[in-house]
Amino acid sequence: MEMGETEINAFLTHLAVEGKVSASTQTQALCAILFLYRAVLGREVGELEGLVRAKRRRRLPVVLTMEEDKRILAHVEGVERLFLSLLYGTGLRLTEALRLRIKDVDLIYDQITIRDGKGGKDRVTMLPVSLKAELMEHLKGVKRLHEDDLRQGYGRVFLPHALARKYPRAAGEWGWQYVFPAPQISRDPRTGEHRRHHLHERPLQRAFHDAARKAGVTKAATCHTLRHSFATHLLMNGYDIRTVQELLGH
Predict the structure, then answer these.
(1) What values do phi and psi take at 199, rounded to 5?
(2) How far apart are the first and last CA of the chain?
(3) Non-local CB neighbours of 61 within 8 Å, separated by 6+ positions
(4) CATH class of the domain defined by 1-58
(5) Tens digit of each residue's pLDDT (9 = 90 or more) over 116-171
(6) Cα angle value 120/80/202 (rounded, 5°)
(7) Do 165 and 87 form a contact (C-beta atoms < 8 A)?
(8) CATH 1.10.10.10 for the 66-248 domain, yes or no
(9) What is the DSSP letter of 219?
């Protein structure tokens, strides 16, 4: 029996009404069916009139109290502690902090520039004075690591292709290195070149999860929760909402 638009409609509606699946699951099922028809059967699917769409569940963001943030950070050490403290103190997204370059950290004006953030926008956020000394000490170690890499024939960081073509020497310059480099050299699957990438997000997420458990925080918090806490605590301290939105890149 061939399944047409009526059967597809009924199946997808069943997922939403009877199966109570999420909107993303229903969309995934629709995409799979469209791929089957177009790529395998070589025909188009007509209008799916009357299709009942699964509702997107809107969840309130988890926010930690200042005390909970302090307790969590007290159970993290080393680079992980500095990284997570920076997330809380700047409102950076996890990937934005991972991709941060040396040249984008301004230790004179105490600010950080985020390049090509969400939506392709640049923005500037604050660098907490409380983290400045620790960050400066961290960067000294990063510079020694970079100099060692150069002596061993490495030290060239990944650059977007347009920049790599325009500034062929930039990849080896100090300013373009990652603030949080990976502990080991690895092969870049895009180019085959061996280089030092930035830290991977998984160990940082694990460090946060373990610290939250040790701190007795039972909220469903993640690294991204620190960004929510940053915004909420600024508002609680009298910052206007427009300023906070600009710092977050909204």
Answers:
(1) -55, 150
(2) 50
(3) 225, 228
(4) mainly alpha
(5) 767 678 899 999 999 999 999 999 999 999 999 999 999 999 987 688 888 888 99
(6) 65
(7) no
(8) no
(9) S
Res 130: pLDDT: 94
The structure tokens listed for 1 are 């029996």
Q: Which residues contact 117 (CB under 8 A, 6 or more apart)?
A: 93, 96, 123, 249
- Nearest CA to 91 among 204, 208, 248? 248
Phi then psi dihedrals of residue 107, to 5 deg: -85, -5
Q: b/e for 143-173, b at 16 or more Cβ within 10 A?
A: eeebeebeeeebbbbbbeeeeeeeeeeebee
Residue whose entry in the numeric block shows the structure tokens 């997000």: 201
* Residue 2, pLDDT score: 62
Q: Where are the domains of the chain?
A: 1-58, 66-248
CA atoms within 13 A on the CB side of 30: 23
Q: HEC states along 232-247? A: HHHHHCCCCHHHHHHH
DSSP E strands, 62-212:
105-106, 111-114, 123-126, 186-187, 194-195
Residue 124 tokens read as: 């500037």
pTM above 0.85, yes or no: no
Low-confidence ranges of the chain (pLDDT < 50): 1
| Distance, CA of 121 to CA of 136 (rounded, Å) | 27
